[in-house]
Amino acid sequence: MSQRPGTEGSSVSRRITVDPGPTWPERLRHHGARALLIVALAAFITVFFPPTEGLNIQLPSEGEVAQETVTADIGFSVPKTPEELDRDRQLAMTTVPPTFRYRAEAMDSVQARLNRFFDGLDSVAAAGDTLAMGDLLRRSQISATPSQMSYLIDDDIRATFRSAAMRAASEVLPRGVVDPARVLELTTESVTVSREGVEQSVPVDDVLTSTDFYAEAVRLLPQQLPPDARELFRLVLIYHLEYSLELDVFETERDKDAVRASVPLTKGDVLERQVIVRAGDVIGPDARERLDAYYAALRAEGGGEEASLDFGALFGAALLNGLLLSIFGLLVFFARPEVYANYRWLLLLAILTAAYFGAGIGIDRGGLPPEWLPIAFVALPVAVLWDTRMALLLVLVLAAITGTLEPFSDYGTVLGVMAGGAAAAMSVRAVTRRSETWVSIAIISGASALVLLAHGMATSRPLAEVAGGAAVFAGNATASALLAMGFLWVFELFTGITTDQTLLEWADPTRPLLRRLAMEAPGTYAHTINVANLAEAAATRIDANGLLCRVGVLYHDVGKMLKPHYFVENQPDARNPHDKLKPETSAAIVLEHVTEGARLARDESVPEVVVNFIYEHHGTQRIGFFYEKAREEAEDDVEIDVQRFTYPGPRPRSKETAIVMLADSCESAARAMQDPTPERVRDLIDTIVDGKVSDGQLDEAPLTLREVAEVKDQFVSILAGVHHRRIEYPGTKHLTDSEEEAAETPAASLPESA
Q1: C-alpha pair distances (Å), 427 with each of 174, 235, 355
Q2: Which residues, at least 6 apart from 241, have a Cβ–Cβ distance to it below 8 Å?
Q3: Spacing of C-alpha 95 from chain mean position
Q4: Distance between CA 481 and CA 133 in Å, rounded?
Q5: Omega into 650 within 30° of 0, i.e. cis?
Q6: Is the CA virtual torsion 382, 555, 504, 685 positive or negative?
Q7: 194 forms bridges with which residues in the sheet?
């Protein structure tokens, strides 16, 4: 629920916002401006989603039976789906042979490392130091048994090892040795070896791995060497080996990118006059793909003869869009006259509708799934600013129009839009603060997912496809809801509507004005809290906006904090400064709390709908106490200016401000009662309310007599309970007597407004 100030404006905007005048030109201007919005929206939708003659074919859904034979009027290609294209590209890239770069420096590096290793062995062997030899082997990460170490101490065997290792480095390594892990990754039967800028294709079987290198090197040893000596030799080579073939990642990826780009985007061609589907055939996935491709080809053909614009169809589409939009327009006209009267509100509704279909244009042109249609972005602001029923009908109208547009004509899309929009419109009942937007998002996502699941089960759609659509809807709901709530303050500023979320923010007691009121005029603040509770309960009783009543009351007396001691509730010592003032001066001070309170509120940017409470809670009542005092003091021939003792008004113009006027007076009077029995409280309230009615203060408020009676009953129920007669305790009876005596003083007898 939200609150709206009176329609205001100037010039043309004001003339088309207020009620139409009595003359036909004024009525024509008033209603014509509103009809123009529908015409403009219908034209916008039709221009960007035009019907064409070539697109009038009926595309059956998958699983249905074709009612007629469809023949291609133009030749076209059937594109691959994103999944198929990605699969084909991945397969194509697996056929690209990797490129290995030959490292000639590997041979020299391995030989140099081997020479340093064997030179070290020669030194420690010559010294006969087995401990030093063990340290040398450990530094080379070679674990040798005592018997294997004896081979290295032997000069002949050590020389044989050196000779075989050097031959392996100079004869086997130049043939190309690669890391075995790279070979395991190969998906091709050959690789490309680049030697000094020359590329050569080599079969995978001819590529040597480190295992092959060790085997070739061991065969260079004499046959009579025992196995443990050969194993020691292999360990020496493992530590000192460097691969002479290194994967060239850049060249390999460039080759893969070239092959990926060469994969065709289509998977078949359909010739002109070729039959796409025959009557009576069941529409399978392939047939549906060909039909979709045919539809896309006709659209891409543009102004060709087969797809030329049919102006009759164009006019019919515009008329259909206009009629559907008129359904919502008629609801506003008949059921929401206050919305129809305010052109800025209608303009915002038109902007939201245009934004929805504008997003649809981007979704269609960008090839995005239709689940991205932002229906929640439209439904949420309308429901928050106005009400759920308006938002719900707008959603249904937009869903109906969406179903007539070729890109979104699938029935599942229409159901999703209806479900998501309806959930968004009704979710605002569960959201009272902007921080609870995620509750609305969860409701929208859940409702859309359930509808998609039910429709998917009914049409035997794959579960993965349904889950994908639900995930897109969830993302859409998140983005739309956050965007709508983020722009809500802009919508409030544009329309002048104050939402409940904004009212809750202004009810915060730490707001500067309320904090000042509590500190500088504590009596007024206490009175304000009591009146707020009373007014909120009464408003809720008659289905008015209780929250607005509470917030309005919190600010209705902020003007008193400028001169708090001139008001009786802030005079604890019963000393009344009005006793030393003229009645006119006292009345001016009392009247000032209205005008100054409005000024203070506007300086703090308090919403106008709350400022109205400051002006209207006293209406145009007369400050009777000072007026009568002025009459008593005036000479017989002096006429009293009544306006100097009358509040500026206006009178209450809403149920909420009228309730606050009554609550303000009733609470003040009940607090001053000496013996507050329920019967006396009821008589008091009847007297006060009847006095307001007879004075005409409620003439402009839309309160019925029944509602006034219910408000009085609620006041009696609360005030009789709050101001009940209490038991006098012997130990505190003297305090009670003092209070009763104080009640007889002139200050206490003054009305609270004094």
Answers
A1: 74, 73, 21
A2: 110, 177, 210, 213
A3: 45
A4: 76
A5: yes
A6: negative
A7: 101, 199
Q: Per-residue pLDDT averaged across 302-309, rounded? A: 47
> Please, what is the end-to-end C-alpha distance for the chain in angstroms?
36
How many alpha carbons lie under 13 Å from residue 311 in its C-beta half-sphere? 0
CA distance 196 to 205: 22
Q: Which of 241, 242, 221 is nearest to 163 (CA)?
A: 221
Q: How far is CA 369 from the centre of its chain?
A: 19
pLDDT in tens, 8-54: 333 333 444 556 767 888 889 989 999 999 999 999 999 999 885 54
What would the DSSP string read from start to end of 564-584?
GGGSGGG-TT---GGGGS-HH
| DSSP letter, residue 168 | I
Q: Which residues contact 521 (CB under 8 A, 6 or more apart)?
A: 557, 560, 561, 564, 567, 570
Among 579, 530, 557, 518, smallest CA distance to 753 is for 557
Alpha helices in 51-104, H assignment, sequence order = 82-94
Separation CA 627–CA 608 (nearest Å) = 31
Other Cβ atoms within 10 Å of 158 Cβ, number:
16
Q: CA torsion, points 252, 257, 259, 263, in degrees to nearest 10?
A: 160
Cα angle for residues 558, 563, 568 (degrees, 5° grid): 85
How far is residue 26's CA from residue 24's CA, in Å, rounded to a whole number?
5
Rounded CA-CA distance 539/125 in Å is: 107
Cβ neighbours of residue 667 under 8 Å, at least 6 residues apart?
A: 527, 530, 531, 534, 719
| 426 contacts: CB under 8 Å, gap ≥ 6 | 383, 388, 392, 443
In the beta sheet, which residues pair with residue 65? Answer: 282
pTM: 0.61
DSSP 640: P
**Strand 2-3 relative to strand 498-499: parallel, antiparallel, unpaired?**
antiparallel
Question: d(Cα 323, Cα 318) in Å, to the nearest integer?
Answer: 9
Exposure pattern of 482-495 as b/e (b: 16+ CB <10 Å)?
Answer: bbbbebbeebbeeb
Q: How far is Cα 554 from Cα 661, in angstroms, rounded to an integer? A: 13
Q: What is the pLDDT of residue 725?
A: 54
Residue 553 one-letter amino acid: V
8 A C-beta contact, residue 426 and residue 379:
no
- DSSP annotation of 205 reads G
Burial of 611 (0-12, 13-18, 19+ CB in 10 A): buried
- SS3 at position 619: coil
Report whether 318 contacts 59 (CB < 8 A). no
Average pLDDT over residues 634-638: 70
Q: Tokens for 476?
A: 């859409």
Contact 658, 703 (CB under 8 A): yes
**Confidence tier at 580 by pLDDT (50, 70, 90):** confident
Alpha-carbon gap, residue 336 to 390, rounded angstroms: 9
User: Could you tell me which residues come within 8 angstroms of residue 466 by beta carbon, excluding any fewer than 6 positions away?
Assistant: 452, 453, 456
Structure tokens at 55: 């697109």
What six digits make up the tokens of 171?
Answer: 């004869």
Tokens 């539809």: give the residue: 295
Please, where are the H alpha helices in 507-557? 512-520, 522-541, 546-556
The predicted model gives 133-152 an average pLDDT of: 86
Residue 724: strand, helix, or coil:
coil
Within 13 Å of residue 113, how many CA atoms lie on the same side as its CB?
A: 15
Tell me which amino acid residue 717 is. Answer: S
pLDDT of 8 reads: 39
Chain centre to alpha carbon of residue 90:
36
Could you say which DSSP state residue 201 is in?
E
Question: In whole numbers, what is the pLDDT of the chain averaged over residues?
Answer: 86
Angstrom CA distances, 68 to 275, 288, 290, stand at 11, 14, 15
Token pair of 169, please?
């480095």
Report the alpha-carbon distance of residue 62 to residue 45 in Å, rounded. Answer: 28
